[in-house]
Amino acid sequence: MSAEIQGKVRQFITTNFYVADPAALKDDASLLDAGIVDSTGVLEIVQFLEGEFGFKVEDAEIVPENVDSISRLTAFVAKKKK
After folding, report:
1. First and final CA of the chain: distance in angstroms?
2. Residue 36 C-beta-side C-alpha neighbours within 13 Å
3. Are the C-beta atoms of 30 and 41 separated by less than 8 Å?
4. Which of 62, 65, 66, 82 has the fewest CB atoms within 10 Å, measured from its CB?
5. Is 18 in contact with 41 (CB distance < 8 Å)?
6. Chosen CATH of 2-80 out of 1.10.1200.10, 1.10.10.570, 1.10.472.90, 1.10.472.10
7. Domain ranges of the chain
């Protein structure tokens, strides 16, 4: 399940944002620090999560701890889907 979530999240990030070398993007790399995602990008990711995985992301949940890397996004989705 987690691998499936991770694959979908990774594909969304590498398809919708500029990632110079998708294969080199580590799952725990900060998407914000790497300049891959900005504040608008975070909102795009939230929309993707809500549409793809069928849950509502609350404003208070839009924090770096939940959305700043592929690993954090995967863990967040897994937690929300329980």
Report:
1. 11
2. 24
3. no
4. 82
5. no
6. 1.10.1200.10
7. 2-80
**8 A C-beta contact, residue 30 and residue 67:** no
- Pick from 48, 21, 47, 44: which is nearest to 34 by CA? 21
CB within 8 Å of 50: residues ≥ 6 apart: 56, 57
For the record, the structure tokens of 5 come out as 């979530």
How confident is the model over 12-17, as a mean pLDDT? 97
3-state DSSP helix/strand/coil percent for the chain, to nearest 5? Answer: 60, 0, 40
Q: Residue 5: name the closest of 67, 82, 70, 65 by CA.
A: 70
pLDDT score, position 82: 82
Q: How high is the mean pLDDT of the chain? A: 96
| Cβ neighbourhood burial of 40 (10 Å; 0-12, 13-18, 19+) | exposed
